[in-house]
Each structure stands twice: as C-alpha cells, then as structure tokens.
Amino acid sequence: MTRKMWGLIPVLDCSQLLRLCPSQCKPYVCPITTPDPRVDSSQRTMSDQAFVTLATNDSYAKGAMVLGQSLRNHNTTRKLVVLIGPHVAEPCRDALRSVFDEVRVVDVMDSGDTAHLALMKRPDLGVTFTKLHCWTLTHYSKCVFMDADTLVLSNIDELFEREELSAAPDPGWPDCFNSGVFVFRPSNETHEKLLTFCGEHGSFDGGDQGVLNSFFNTWATADISKHLPFVYNLSSIAIYSYLPAFKQYGHDAKVVHFLGKVKPWNYSYDAQQGEVRGHSQSPDQSQLHPDYLLMWWQLYAKSVLPLLQKSYGEAPFSSGFVEASGDGKLHEDVSEHPAPSHPPPQKVSSEERKQRWEAGQIDYLGDDSFANIERKLDSFLK
C-alpha cells in the first residue's frame, strides 16, 4: 500500500514547487553579486600601505629602480616609495619618479630638533638616521622597508599581514634580524624614540641594524610570527656557506639580498654576450650569486637603463655597459662618473687565508672553492 502511495506522488522540481506556494510563503530571493576579481581586500588597502626603500646616491638609485621594477613586474598592489638623499642627481630623480609613486628627499640635518640633537652626539650614524626617516611616512598605516640592494623574485604582498617589527634572521648571527627587509608601522612617536635611543646608545655594529636590533630587542624570543622565513631575505653569503640548504629550499626564494661591499652596479654588463663582467676583479665575488647577479643586470638593461637614458638625454652618465671596440677589446660605456675599479686580488699566504676564513671572508669561487678544497683533501688522503 505504501509503495502504491509513493507511486502516486508527482516528482516536482524547485520552480514547480514555488508556483504551488502562496505568494506570502515564497522566499525572498536576494540577488547574488559576484565580486570583481580585480578588487580584493589587499587592493582596497593599497593606497594605505607601501614598500619603502632608500637611495643616498646615484649608484644606490640604480639599485632602488631595479628593486622597484621587480616589485612592479610581480604585480604588487601596494604603493612604492623611495627616500633619497640630497646628493642624488636630478636626472636620477626623474627616472625614480617613473618607477615610484612617491620620491621624497630626506636630509637628517633638516629633519627637526630631535634628529639634529641626536646626530650631534653620534655623527657617525648619519646614514642610519636617514634610514630611520621611514617611520615618518605616517600617511601609510603599514610599510615594508627593503634595502636598495635587494631584488624581488615573486609577489610578496603577503608581508603586509605581518606586524612591526617583522624581519628575517641575519645569516651572520641568527638571533639578530637583518634590517634589509622588515615590516613596520610609521609613527612619529616611534621615530623620535628611535632617534633618542640612537643618540644615547649608538649602534653595536655602526649601522642601522645594530640600532634596530637593540631597540626592538625582544624580536628573537617574544613572537615567532615576527620571524620572516629566510626566503624573504636570502643572502648570497648564506647560499655558499650552507649550499645543501640552498639546493633544498632555494627554489622558494622570494627576495635576494646582495650583501657585501661590492654591489651589482659595481660590475659591468656585456649586453651582446649577455654576461656580467668584472667577477675576477672583485675580491668579494663570492658574495654575489652569479645567477641572481645576471638577473639583476637583465632587469636593469630592459627596464631601468631606458629610463636613465631618457632622463639624462645628451648628458653623459655611467651606464655600466661594456662595448666591443674596433680592436676587439671590451670598453666600459661610461662617462665622467665611472664605476669604481677593483685591483686584481693579490696572492695571500696560508696564514692570511686561515685568518680570512675564520673571519668569514671566504673566497668560495677562488682559492677556497669546493674543487680546491676537495683536491687538498684528496692529497692528504692518498
């Protein structure tokens, strides 16, 4: 009987059931709006957040432009800001304006009484004081500072989910953070406290990293969420000192940091051959990974050099390129501002090499290369 009853009940779809319902019983249908995929939460806050860098001279301005262009190439939704020193040439400033949303000239001596008085106590920290100006960008709610000798390899907008002061460990002393990349909240109050602290305590390493680590002294122990993964601040020094880890995790690198005295712009580039020149002339060659160095120059050649050529016009400037002349030799395409040359490395004694090794000054691509070490070990084991 039950089976026969079910056979008499018609099967209705939803639209048929709604037609059978009284009007007062019909559900209110709320139209579903599909959000524009181009407008997400990060983009809605883009004008309120910014990546910030610093260029104190024309050379660092080139680095800043490569950094800014790498952020643009990886589709950042945040503003780009560069703080520049008064010595940056006007053509360089014009080129910077083509990459950055905001170009702000900063000069410690004109920044107010607090900075002026602090600098009088510690004039050796002039560049550090200039970097601390980033805390005065109070028209932004949150920023990520990046040194001009960094290069972005993928989109890193997720850094804005972190809080002040978030940074990656320094390869030389992991209980310290490296100040080449850090998340912060602009604040005039924090800025004044930093300047006062700087003037009273100085810096244990003579630069901004020592000051910031002393000021934000709970970074190592208080909150693990403020420890950025090392891939957000990967240094070539660390690549060579722990090569197995680089082989395991290096493909996830998001930011490369060209630590050391010799920067990418101190080299030369042969556009015809697509090669970076000057490796053998630099005693610090081991600190710059050749693949990342080439990547830096390729981006410079494609996106930055045209901006500089447009800004300088007929005026000469150092392009960093080398060209083949009639005699078949390569000559640097420079002007009245040639890049610094480096004398060829001199042969050092075994004792000096030992001292350099213990001080962390290892020539991984020269005398201290893996192949040379392997040959030395083989000679002892035979």
From TrEMBL:
The protein's annotated pathway: Glycan biosynthesis; glycogen biosynthesis
Compartment(s) of residence: Cytoplasm; Nucleus
Ranges where the record places region Disordered: 327-358
Signal peptide: none
Catalytic reaction(s) noted: L-tyrosyl-[glycogenin] + UDP-alpha-D-glucose = alpha-D-glucosyl-L-tyrosyl-[glycogenin] + UDP + H(+); [1,4-alpha-D-glucosyl](n)-L-tyrosyl-[glycogenin] + UDP-alpha-D-glucose = [1,4-alpha-D-glucosyl](n+1)-L-tyrosyl-[glycogenin] + UDP + H(+)
GO CC annotation terms, alphabetical: cytoplasm; nucleus
Gene Ontology process terms (BP): glycogen biosynthetic process
Pfam families in the cross-refs: Glyco_transf_8 (PF01501)
Protein known as: glycogenin glucosyltransferase
Provenance organism: Amphiprion ocellaris (Clown anemonefish)
